[in-house]
Amino acid sequence: xxxxxxxxxxxxxxxxxxxxxxxxxxxxxxxxxxxxxxxxxxxxxxxxxxxxxxxxxxxxxxxxxxxxxxxxxxxxxxxxxxxxxxxxxxxxxxxxxxxxxxxxxxxxxxxxxxxxxxxxxxxxxxxxxxxxxxxxxxxxxxxxxxxxxxxxxxxxxxxxxxxxxxxxxxxxxxxxxxxxxxxxxxxxxxxxxxxxxxxxxxxxxxxxxxxxxxxxxxxxxxxxxxxxxxxxxxxxxxxxxxxxxxxxxxxxxxxxxxxxxxxxxxxxxxxxxxxxxxxxxxxxxxxxxxxxxxxxxxxxxxxxxxxxxxxxxxxxxxxxxxxxxxxxxxxxxxxxxxxxxxxxxxxxxxxxxxxxxxxxxxxxxxxxxxxxxxxxxxxxxxxxxxxxxxxxxxxxxxxxxxxxxxxxxx
Length: 410
Known about the structure:
There is one protein chain. The strands form 4 sheets. The chain has a 7-stranded mixed beta sheet with strand order 1-2-12-11-24-25-13, with no helix packed on it. Strands 4, 5, 6, 7, 8, 9 and 10 form a 7-stranded mixed beta sheet that branches. By secondary structure, it is mainly beta. The chain folds into 2 domains: about 1-40 and about 240-410, Beta Barrel (Cathepsin D, subunit A, domain 1), CATH 2.40.70.10; about 60-230, Acid Proteases (Cathepsin D, subunit A, domain 1, Beta Barrel), CATH 2.40.70. It has helices at about 1-10, 65-70, 200-210, 300-310, 350-355, 385-390, and strands spanning about 50-55, 55-60, 65, 70-80, 85-90, 95-100, 125-135, 140-150, 155-170, 180-185, 215-220, 225-230, 240-245, 260-270, 280-290, 295, 325, 335-340, 345-350, 355, 365-370, 370, 385, 395-400, 405-410.
């Protein structure tokens, strides 16, 4: 199993820092929101007059941390009549793809997942335009296609996505994964030479088609009530008002250009022992949100300070991440990251920035550190806020107002 984890981790992302941490086989830990409301801006808590599901808004449940804690999946439909397909949620890229039924098994990665029968859809449009995609541990190529994509009762017409004729992965042994594609919800197309279709995400398509009451989506990743909603928020999934909001920015990213991004001004660690508390200046670096990985990527100097102050240790063992005795989490420091102009602060407890790590040997349960950095690559110009950060809050990604807002989970 460890050999499998090593192979999987090495290939998981084409970014060096994600090779530091093994995400496969993590066990989910309880997450608790520790932030206290500071700003009270009213969220949209009800649809506009006359709105009905599918007419201005819609929602779909999210499966929490499926398939070895790799990410978050949801069931959406493609085509007419609609065919339900499980896909992974990706807020870092605008690109989407789905495995066709006609793809030979030898060219698939997730052999057991349902597929999309393109010939059974009356609205499917194939093109000869070459398309390639790259989702961290797997990649593929095929042709750009168009069809109706539906999120619950909300549909977007003529949505662009790739139909691959080949999918490959460095992660051998994972053919039983329960997904058949990726749905990208980033607001922009990439400006880099990385794989990119140059086509709008479903969110942008909905905005162009005037399908939504408000051009936003809201995300709750935590717990059995996890949900993705478009056009409005769900008042049953959060409490009070916003606790923070940060402007959407578009600094060039080395990792996921075009994703949901803001800036981060500083990080504060609040320990019981004042000698271990500190504030680190992040210099308003770009901060990109991601649902691909749980990790929160920090500049090395900041990461080293958090590592030491929180009391993480590197236990012996192949590819073991830094860990701490899980029983210590009640006494571990809070970590606050200030976004935007520095006045919008979001706090994580140790229950949110660690995750239970299964050990082969008996002993006290160990919790892995979800903060990380990179060796051999300069991360000082950018940080990544993975789903360990995103799932600690109810997050609203607002395309109209170019804002990212955060509320406390209910």
